[in-house]
Design brief:
- The chain has 3 helices and 41 strands.
- The longest helix is centred in the middle third of the chain and has 6 residues, at 248-253.
C-alpha cells in the first residue's frame, strides 16, 4: 500500500536565498513531512513559487511570457515585439504594469510617470534562459508589496542550473533569427553566469520587424556560512516596428494598402511610422547575512532607462496634420530595498516571527508626448513635456503569531510616501497678465498607509484555509499633479479566501491545488483612451471572482499545470463605496474567464548504448469574451502551442509551433471613433478596431552544450 504524506504548501523562502537555494531539492528526494511554520516569512493565500525548468519545452521566448504560468493571467501585446504586454489578472486590465508590481531579482521595474503609461514594466532586457523561477503573489496582501501591486506582484529570479557553455541558434517563420551565447562556470554558484542574446525578425504581416541585443551577467559568492553577495548587470537595446490597429470595416472592405486577401488585409497597417525603441543599463548588488533566528538582506541598484513609442489610434480624427503621438521617457534610477527578519519563541515555546522592510527609490529625467505631422514626421504640438524627479520611500512591519498547530495570524502595516517635482515646458509665453516664461515647476507629496492581514487555519495536515484582507496603493502620475497638492493614491481594498491542498506519494507523484474567491475595490480606476493613447481616470471599479489551479507531477517524467479564473468587473457610480460590488456598467477590456493548461513530459531512451533524452510540451491558453465600451464585445479565442526537444550528448535540437491551428485572433480590440483617410471629413461614429494576433509560426533550435560537468546528462536531470 503506498504511503501518502503531505507536502507543505510553499511559504515564502528567505529573501537572502538565491534562486538556486530555493529549488535545490530534487523531486527524487523524499517529500517533506508537513510541519507548521516551516520558514520564517509568512505567506498570504496565493503565493506561488514556480520553477520554470519543467515547462521550458512549452514555447515561451521572452522573460515576460513565463507570466502565463500564473493562475488566471493572460498576456496581450498590440504594439510590437519589444513592447511590454498588457496583463489581464484577477479582474484587472493591468495595462503594461500599472496594477501589477514587477521585480527582477528584488529590483522593482515599474516606471512611474512613463509617457507611454504610468507603471510601464518591461522585462525584455532579461534573457529568458537565465530566469530560473517566478515568485508570484496575487492580491495586495504581502507586506513587502509596494507601488502598483493592486492585482499582485511577480518577481523574476535569475540563476543557471545547467553549468557550462551554451551556443544556441534559432531560425523560424517570418525570418526569425537568434543567437544565444551563455556561459555558467562549472562549480560556481547558480548566480554566476554571462550571456549575450542577439535577435532579428521580419515579423508577420506588414511593418512588424524587430531587432534586439541583450547582455546579462551575474556573480554570486559565498563569503562565509553567514554572508553571501550577488552582483548583476544588464544592458539591452531594441528597435521594433508596430502595425497598430485597423478598423474592422476597412478590413472587411479590403481597402487597406496590402494584397486583397483576407489574411493580408488583417495583417496590414495604416501608418508605417509606428514603432518604438527601448534601451536600458542597470547594475544590482545584494548582500545577505544570515544567523540563527535572524536574516538581513540589502539590495541596491542604479541604472539608466529610455523608451520611445510612436502610435496612431485615431488617424486624422483630432487634427488634419495627423494624430501620431510620439511618447518619450528617459530617466536615471537609483534605489535600495531591504528587509530584516527575526524569529523568537513564545506562546508555549512556538516560533513567532517579526519582519521589517524598507525601500527608497529616486527616478529623475524627462517624460513627454508629442504630436507628429503625417507628411514629414515633424512635431507640431506637445501634449505634455515635463522634467520629473520622483522620490519613493516606503517601509513595512509584519508579525506572525503562531497560536497552535492549527491556527496562525499574520498582521502587517505598510507605509509609502512619494515626493514629486515636475517642471512643465509647455506653458504659454504670454497669458492675460502679459509675458511669462514658458515653464512652470510644481511640487507635491503623498503618503499612504496600507494595513494587511492573513488568518491561516489548518483543518488537516493536507488541507489549509487562508483568508486575507489588505489595502494596496498605486502612486500618482506626476504629469497630473498641481503645485502643493497632497498627491492622491489609487487605493485597492481587497479580500480573499482560499483553500490549499498538498498531497504526495514518495517518489511517485505530487499534487498541489488551490481554490480561491476574491473581491477588490479600486477607487481610481484607469481605462485606456485611444485619443490620448494613454490611460485616464475612469472613477471607481469593483471586481469579484474565483480562480482554481492545480499542479500534478509524476516522478520526473510528467508535469501538468492547469488553472482557470472567472471574474465579474464593473465601473461604479460616483461616490460608490468599497462594499458596492456590482453596477450596470462593465469594466471594459476585462474578460469574464481565462483558462490555461501546460503539459511537459521527458523520457530517456537508449539506442546502441547511447542515451537520448526526448521532451515534449503542450500549452493551451483561452481567453473569454471581453466587454468593450458602448456594449460591444470582443470574441473569445483559444491558442495551442507545442514544442519538442531531443538531446544527445552535447547536442540539443528543438522545434516549436505556436498557434498550431492557425487561429485568426486579435491581440486587442477597441471600439471608438477614428478617421484614417486624410482627405475625408472625420466621423464621430465609433467603429471596431483590432490589432491582429500572430498566425501559426514554426521555430527550429540547435544548441551545443559544451564543457558541462556531465556531458551525458539529459534534459530531465536539469529539472528540479
Amino acid at each position: 500500500m503506498p504511503c501518502v504524506v503531505v507536502r507543505a504548501q510553499p511559504d515564502a523562502p528567505p529573501a537572502s536565498d538565491s534562486a538556486s537555494d530555493s529549488e535545490s531539492a530534487s523531486d527524487s528526494d523524499p517529500p517533506p513531512v508537513f510541519h507548521a511554520r516551516a520558514v520564517a516569512s509568512p505567506a498570504p493565500p496565493l503565493v506561488t513559487d514556480l520553477p520554470l525548468a519543467p515547462f521550458r519545452i512549452v514555447p515561451r521566448r521572452t522573460a515576460e511570457s513565463f507570466l502565463t504560468l500564473v493562475p488566471g493571467l493572460f498576456l496581450l501585446n498590440h504594439a510590437g515585439a519589444y513592447h511590454a504586454s498588457t496583463v489581464l489578472l484577477r479582474g484587472f486590465d493591468a495595462g503594461e504594469g500599472r496594477d501589477l508590481a514587477v521585480l527582477v531579482h528584488g529590483v522593482p521595474i515599474n516606471e512611474p510617470s512613463n509617457a507611454h503609461g504610468h507603471g510601464y514594466a518591461d522585462t525584455h532586457f532579461v534573457i529568458p534562459e537565465l530566469v530560473e523561477s517566478l515568485r508570484v503573489t496575487e492580491g495586495p496582501f504581502a507586506p513587502e508589496q509596494s507601488d502598483f501591486a493592486l492585482a499582485g506582484s511577480v518577481e523574476h529570479r535569475l540563476g543557471v542550473r545547467a553549468r557550462g557553455l551554451r551556443v544556441q541558434g534559432e531560425l523560424g517563420s517570418f525570418d526569425t533569427r537568434r543567437l544565444l551565447l551563455s556561459w555558467a562556470p562549472v562549480g560556481a554558484e547558480r548566480g554566476t553566469f554571462a550571456a549575450v542574446d542577439l535577435r532579428d525578425a521580419r515579423g508577420f504581416g506588414r511593418h512588424r520587424a524587430s531587432t534586439s541585443l541583450a547582455l546579462n551577467a551575474g556573480y554570486e559568492h559565498v563569503v562565509s556560512s553567514d554572508v553571501r553577495i550577488a552582483l548583476l548587470g544588464f544592458a539591452h537595446f531594441a528597435d521594433f516596428d508596430s502595425a497598430g490597429v485597423l478598423r474592422a470595416d476597412d478590413v472587411a472592405a479590403r481597402t487597406l494598402p496590402c494584397a486583397p486577401s483576407d489574411r493580408a488585409q488583417r495583417l496590414c497597417a495604416y501608418d508605417d511610422a509606428q514603432g518604438g525603441t527601448s534601451s536600458r543599463a542597470m547594475l544590482v548588488a545584494t548582500l545577505s547575512w544570515t544567523r540563527p533566528g535572524t536574516r538581513l538582506e540589502q539590495t541596491i541598484w542604479g541604472g539608466w532607462r529610455r523608451l520611445r513609442m510612436r502610435e496612431n489610434f485615431t488617424g486624422f480624427l483630432l487634427d488634419p496634420r495627423g494624430d501620431l503621438v510620439d511618447q518619450q521617457y528617459e530617466t536615471g534610477q537609483a534605489g535600495l530595498r531591504g528587509s530584516y527578519r527575526a524569529t523568537t519563541r513564545a506562546l508555549d515555546d512556538r516560533p513567532q516571527h517579526l519582519e521589517l522592510g524598507w525601500i527608497a527609490r529616486h527616478d529623475a529625467g524627462t517624460t513627454r508626448a508629442l504630436r507628429l505631422r503625417a507628411s514629414d514626421g515633424a512635431p507640431y504640438r506637445a501634449d505634455f513635456d515635463d522634467a520629473i524627479a520622483i522620490t519613493h520611500v516606503g517601509a513595512h512591519v509584519a508579525a506572525e503569531l503562531d497560536f497552535a498547530d492549527w491556527i496562525a495570524l499574520r498582521a502587517a502595516l505598510r507605509a509609502d510616501g512619494f515626493a514629486y517635482t515636475t517642471t512643465d515646458h509647455t506653458e504659454p509665453e504670454r497669458d492675460r497678465e502679459g509675458e511669462r516664461l514658458p515653464f512652470r515647476t510644481t511640487d507635491a507629496l503623498g503618503i499612504s498607509l496600507q494595513p494587511r492581514g492573513t488568518l491561516r487555519v489548518r483543518f488537516a495536515p493536507w488541507l489549509e484555509w487562508q483568508s486575507s484582507a489588505g489595502v494596496g496603493a498605486r502612486s500618482s502620475d506626476a504629469v497630473a499633479l498641481s503645485d502643493g497638492e497632497r498627491a492622491p493614491f489609487a487605493r485597492a481594498i481587497a479580500i480573499e479566501s482560499a483553500l490549499a491542498l498538498g498531497l504526495a506519494e514518495q517518489g511517485a507523484w505530487a499534487l498541489d491545488a488551490r481554490l480561491a474567491a476574491f473581491h477588490t475595490h479600486v477607487d481610481r480606476e484607469l481605462v485606456f483612451d485611444p485619443e490620448r493613447a494613454r490611460n485616464v481616470d475612469a472613477g471607481a471599479s469593483s471586481r469579484l471572482g474565483a480562480l482554481a489551479s492545480a499542479r500534478l507531477r509524476v516522478a520526473r517524467w510528467l508535469d501538468v499545470l492547469a488553472s482557470g479564473a472567472w471574474t465579474e468587473a464593473f465601473l461604479l457610480a460616483e461616490r460608490a463605496e468599497w462594499q458596492d460590488f456590482t453596477s450596470d456598467e462593465r469594466l471594459p477590456y476585462v474578460p469574464r474567464w481565462t483558462l490555461r493548461l501546460d503539459v511537459a513530459t521527458h523520457h530517456a531512451i537508449t539506442i546502441a548504448g547511447e542515451t537520448i533524452t526526448i521532451g515534449g510540451g503542450l500549452g493551451i491558453g483561452a481567453l473569454g469574451e471581453r466587454p468593450l465600451p458602448l456594449g460591444r464585445v470582443a470574441p473569445a479565442f483559444a491558442l495551442v502551442d507545442v514544442g519538442i526537444v531531443v538531446r544527445w550528448r552535447i547536442v540539443e535540437v528543438g522545434a516549436q509551433i505556436t498557434n498550431l491551428f492557425d487561429a485568426g485572433w486579435d491581440q486587442n480590440v477597441f471600439f471608438y471613433p477614428s478617421s484614417f483617410d486624410a482627405g475625408a471629413t472625420p466621423s464621430r461614429l465609433p467603429e471596431l478596431h483590432a490589432a491582429a494576433g500572430a498566425p501559426r509560426a514554426a521555430l527550429i533550435t540547435l544548441a551545443l552544450l559544451i564543457d558541462e560537468s556531465d556531458p551525458l546528462r539529459g534534459i530531465a536531470e536539469e529539472i528540479p
